[in-house]
Amino acid sequence: MKLFNALSLETIAAKAKLADKEETLREVVRLAKASPLLEHIPDETILEKLRQREMLGSTGFGGGIAIPHCRLEGIDGFVVGLIGVDGEGMDFDSIDEEPVRLIAFIIGPESESDEHIRLLSAISQAMLVPGAVEEMASAGTPETLRESFLRHVRDELEVPEGERGRHLFQVLVQEESLFHEILQVFSGIESSQMVVVNAQNVGTYLSRIPLFADLWSDHSKRDTQVILAVVSKQITNETIRRIERITGPLDRRRDVLLVVQEVYYCSGTIEK
Questions:
Q1: What is the pTM of this model?
Q2: Does residue 69 have an active-site annotation?
Q3: What's the number of domains the chain is made of?
Q4: Each residue's pLDDT tens digit, 251-260
Q5: Do the strands 166-173 and 223-232 form a parallel or antiparallel pair, or are they unpaired?
Q6: What does the pLDDT look like over 77-101, one tens digit per residue?
Q7: Range of 190's domain?
């Protein structure tokens, strides 16, 4: 599903005056109910699902951004909306304890986890574009807010039908925040197959050999997370560009390694 199609003006509010998280979740329900997809779902059902998701951990993930979301039985499509918060923002129990100024929400079918993940990935990447939160939160009308948001969205990478060539991406990451952002790049690719492997640097093992014991610091022994992803050849270059938007030039980094290999044979699938 394209965000362009999922995001309607009826589910957008600009310059909203909100006091706290509970009032915000109720505003999410009010806006979401403008969609015909939810007309048969009681307000309290949606609100309770949003509350349950927040109990798992705040969807205020820092930088003035929150993405409350939930899944419901009995609906067959996604409802996406935006809220720009008036003034300096409001408390949302964000992980960085900073006030939230921009909210995107998703309400989707219980059975569509993969599509839900792709929408979350696309929205979070759009909001992490430098200057995007300030621009969107300052929008004075739903029309302006929608236009600003869609300008920053990096649409899902599409593969032409029948295209079969594949590349294997191996991304070795030592910095956890970078790992999370790079993982979202692959999560937003519908055609990709992906797993994550936890590994240790060779220094961890060589330091146990008496001859080399004094040559590695604790810093060099930190864990490495390895993302293995199979990606269509036709979107390989764009995938690399999206990774480098996060990392900067890879040849200047000492905590990320990217290897891309030709795949001779690929068959089967795995669940996320």
A1: 0.70
A2: yes
A3: 2
A4: 999 899 999 9
A5: antiparallel
A6: 999 999 999 988 899 988 888 999 9
A7: 166-262
